[in-house]
Design brief:
This protein has 134 residues and is an all-alpha fold. It has helices spanning 4-67, 84-90, 95-105, 109-112, 115-130.
């Protein structure tokens, strides 16, 4: 009987500890999807803003080319591969669209006139649907 008391106390202690930890574990598991969703929403918003900036850079560069003004070094960067946000987005792009972007990237800016931002916008919409954010 004396040996049963320590066993009962130890078992009770474990039961009490698990009783306190279970709600914490459930909270952590329940909160995980919310954090993932929030992170994805933020990534989408970031991509959209940077695609708008890329479109503006292309438009500005095209205007400079047409006016034949200013040195090329002063022109905005219009190669998406040079941007961190594109490297983040690229892993979620379809292989077809990556090839399409590479094709247009090699073309003169006057020829491609907005093609890359349009492709990227379409892909971000697709990703947003795929992630069930829309």
């Amino acid at each position: 009987m004396a040996s049963e008391i320590p066993v009962a106390l130890i078992s009770g202690g474990f039961g009490l500890a698990l009783g306190w930890l279970t709600p914490l574990a459930k909270w952590k598991v329940a909160d995980e999807p919310g954090l993932k969703r929030q992170e994805r929403v933020q990534r989408i918003a970031n991509w959209r803003q940077n695609i708008r900036d890329l479109r503006l850079a292309e438009t500005h560069t095209l205007a400079l080319i047409r006016e034949n003004a200013g040195p090329a070094a002063a022109w905005p960067e219009v190669n998406p591969r040079e941007h961190e946000w594109y490297r983040d987005l690229k892993s979620d792009l379809s292989d077809n669209q990556v090839r399409s972007i590479e094709y247009w990237r090699r073309k003169p800016i006057a020829t491609r006139e907005g093609k890359i931002p349009t492709i990227l916008e379409q892909e971000v919409r697709r990703i947003e649907r795929e992630w069930h954010l829309r």
